[in-house]
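As the work plan foresaw, our protein records have gained a structure token line. A representative record is set out beneath this paragraph:
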Amino acid sequence: MRSIDLRILAALLLTASCATPNPPRATEARGGAPTGLVDDYLHAVMEKNHVPGAAVAIVRDGHIERIATYGLADLESEAKIGPDTSFQLASATKLFTGTLVMLLVQEGKLGLDEPLSTYLPDAPETWKALTLRHLAAHTAGLKDSPDDQTSTASVAERYEAARKEPLAYTPGERSEYGLTDFVVLTHVLEKVTGQRFEELLRGRIFEPLGFSCTRYEHAQQQGPLRVADVIPRRATTYRFVDGVQQRAWFLYPLHAYAAGGAFSCVKDLARWAVAMDQGTLLSPQMQQAAATAFRLNDGRAGGFGVAFTLGKLRGLPTFGHAGGGSLADVLRVPEKNLTVIVLTNEQGLLPLLAPNIASLYLPPLPTLDAPGIPDAEPALSAVLRGVVEGLLTGTLDDAAFAPRAQRELLPILRSFGTPESALQPPLRRMILLEDQREGEPRKRIYRAVYGQDVSQTWTFSLDTAGRILELEYEWE
């Protein structure tokens, strides 16, 4: 996740004033962990972004080092967040999907690079080049349906519909976040095992790890009514619009459950992280395979492994997933046996919480203030710096964007950001690293240094007038 195209982030999402956060509870720590810094950071983020409640777990070396809970699960009842409060995970559900796929690979029931026709003999001829790895890494080229979020079709029915559609692009050509890949992946899992997807998760992950608060709500729209299962100790999900909190959560159809829709608590997710550290669920070799980037047709690394998003933090490889912005944000740093889990009940946060907290446990990079390359266009750099700052504060200038980006990208970007968001420390420096003038579009790459030791690289794709077409960031 940590190399994020903001368009992909929008897909991740589809997938009265807030009360002051309560002092954190269950804050035991060991080994000199920076508990005060974590608390200060979360308190500031919650206050500035109107977040009613949050929960955090730190897992290191196979042990739950800390679980802390903050604020309210529900503004109406004023119920407090606890370790067993269930939050909507949204796209972070893919943590379980990726784990399940690799368990079946570990058991020899699936092969990531086997042709899809091995498991689905009725797959169309146009899918001949497809493998399970294509599906799990969002590189299959399968087209999404515009009614996928509201359809009541079964997995098998959606598979039949997908078979009849032409491919959107050549498999392996690009990494494009989508839903249909995971619907077909679900169909494979169910055909191979003879079990429904939820049964597989319960039997292979939830029950063996002793989960107590992870489940699906089975929500459906029935005419004017939305009906769903009762989820004990559920955190109500909110969004803050025009100065008012609104209840707002994502509706996931049953066929989309491999891509999103689970509810879980920080305690259960911490158990998953412990099992990953100890190798009792997936072997280290299987975890490494799951966290290996798909190699695209042109040799570039895609942004996904086997359902997991990939990146770097402080120069170390990471994997995990976020959902709904930061309704859930889970980041593993395998070389340090460190996992950070952050759950919130407020939509519209960029997935910066887990990386910023993980950074408190990792040494800074030594090259943050390296000079970069000479900048022949400082005025353009000033505009691009304003965009980086404005993304967090909600103050974006239309003139910085090309016409198409004004129509398609700006509305997405403006769904994030509040004044003084506190998601990042203040932006201290923007250092030009590359200016790629050859080819279309032109690209400028910067290092953004926040506070003393937080850094990201920002890549801007520009038109001939220097206006933004696309942008993405990556943790260093």
Observations:
- Residues 313 and 476 are 5 Å apart (CA to CA).
- The two ends are 12 Å apart (CA to CA).
- The chain has two domains: 1-363, 378-475.
